[in-house]
Structures are given as structure tokens and as C-alpha cells.
């Protein structure tokens, strides 16, 4: 039986990213809700979403550059 270690690494990285986002949004925003109430939690949620925009843009640009490099190097 062979193991595809690249698939395992991709799967593990994806799970770690999802776990970090869940912790950030659920636990972080949940604590804002507990200490400051619903209105502050909604503003905190909007701020978290706004902070994720640059991260998502960088990831999308890196994925686009990877796709272009793979298409250009079709040796």
C-alpha cells in the first residue's frame, strides 16, 4: 500500500487553517459577545471579516501565480 504524502500534507494544512479560523471566529467573537454583548460581537465579526480580506487576496494571488508558473513550465 502506497501513501501519498503530498495529499496528506495538503489535507493537514487545510484542516489546520479551518481550525484556526473556527477558533478565531467562534472563540474570539464568542468572548466579545460574553464580555460586551451582541452589538460589540457584530462589530467584532465585521472587523474579523475585514481583516481576512488582505489574507484572502494574498492567497488568491499566490494561487494565480502558481497556476501561471505551472502552465508556463509544461516540460
Question: What structural keywords apply?
Answer:
0% strand, 75 residues, mainly alpha
List the helices and strands and how they pair.
Elements: H1 5-36, H2 38-72
What does this structure look like?
This protein has 75 residues and is an all-alpha fold. The protein has one domain. Helices cover 89% and strands 0% of the residues. Helix 1 runs antiparallel to helix 2. The longest helix is centred in the last third of the chain and has 35 residues, at 38-72. The radius of gyration is 18 Å and the shape is elongated. The chain starts with a helix and ends with a helix. The mean pLDDT is 93.
| Beta strand count | 0
Shape: elongated
**What is the terminal-to-terminal distance?**
30 Å
- How many helices? The count is 2
Average of the residue pLDDT scores? 93
Query: Could you say which structural class the secondary elements and strand pairing correspond to?
Result: mainly alpha
Q: Specify Rg, calculated over alpha carbons.
A: 18 Å
Question: What count of domains describes the coordinates?
Answer: 1
Helix-strand sequence: HH
Biggest sheet features: none
Q: Strand content of the residues, in percent?
A: under 5%
Unreliable segments of 5+ consecutive residues: none
Helix content: over 70%
